[in-house]
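Illustration 12: 7,8-didemethyl-8-hydroxy-5-deazariboflavin synthase.
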Amino acid sequence: MCRDTCSYCTYRAEPGDAKASMMPVSRVRELLQMAKRYRCVEALFVTGERPEERYPQVRSWLLREGFSGTAEYLACCSQLALDEGLFPHTNAGNLHADELHLLKGTNVSLGLMLESSSARLAERGMPHHQAPSKVPAARLEVLENAGRLRIPMTTGILVGIGETSEEMIDSILAMRSLHERYGHIQEIILQNFQPEPGTAMGRRPGAQAAYFTRAVALARIAMPDMNIQVPPNLSPDSYQDFLLAGINDWGGISPITPDFVNPEFPWPQLARVDGLSRAAGFELKCRFPVYPEFAQMVPQDLRERMLPMQDDCGLVREDYWR
Ligand SMILES: O=c1nc2n(C[C@H](O)[C@H](O)[C@H](O)CO)c3cc(O)ccc3cc-2c(=O)[nH]1
Ligand SMILES: C[C@H]1O[C@@H](n2cnc3c(N)ncnc32)[C@H](O)[C@@H]1O
Ligand code: SF4
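Figure caption equivalent — predicted structure in token form:
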């Protein structure tokens, strides 16, 4: 559940919908244990935006479980992940500075998509009209607070939701400026919009492949040293285009859970991603949810947990699982 209503989102639910529930902590623990058995490294926590502000049912559920809000619940889940030997990365939308500070204690990095720097997309008839958290000034403020708190951040844009190409370019430059000011953007995701059945934008065309690939190339040209990710499940036929355009990251692939944000898009086989990356001249490696060059921003107790699994480059040791 979520206090926002983005026109492209199939993830959010209203109380009473079949899929509307917060995952009980016991279920979270179960999934984490399964994830460890499947050799996962990262636990990605994603929630709606402050659902307790909109729905009393959510607030009472959280209180019954012993949490003052979604952020406390996520801090608890993140600690469980650490206890099971996984490394948490949380994206709960806009968080207050005290909540960012709380989650920095258990997360090696946090995520918040800028989506777009265009305020026009929040006007009537546009995808963010009913999503106050997606007003660019609000998102930029959270990303700046994260910079002041020295939290390694993953951000990104959603491409093809009705922005003009000028607005798409401005969004790339806005992310670059953030990083120039605070030096905390560890990674940028370029996510292509895919229409989800049943949503307000369900009958719109998805991001055009050529336009999206050009956005990727522009991001690479604007930020030669940035880590740039395209999720592999949303464009299964264009891997080599993205590699040529300049990405160096495929994001997470889960062996145990679907992509709850785009449930129609199955995760690819690792062997296929590996094979296509290799054919384009790249080597697929396993990373932690914090890039090595940002690890010094991570609290020392968390950093120490990574040490036994790390190779000389700060990536996950190839022989760790043998
Ligand atoms: O590296 C990240 N990947 C994130 N991803 C990317 C994910 O790995 C997938 O590649 C895409 O969601 C594909 O739909 C998310 C996926 C979700 O299903 C929901 C939220 C996110 C948010 C992040 C994030 O904060 N950081
Ligand atoms: C978790 C992230 O998933 C993205 N997201 C939400 N809905 C969609 C969709 N229909 N298609 C592609 N990406 C989407 C947003 O960018 C959000 O921040
Ligand atoms: S994209 Fe995020 S903020 Fe928007 S409705 Fe979905 S869960 Fe809420």
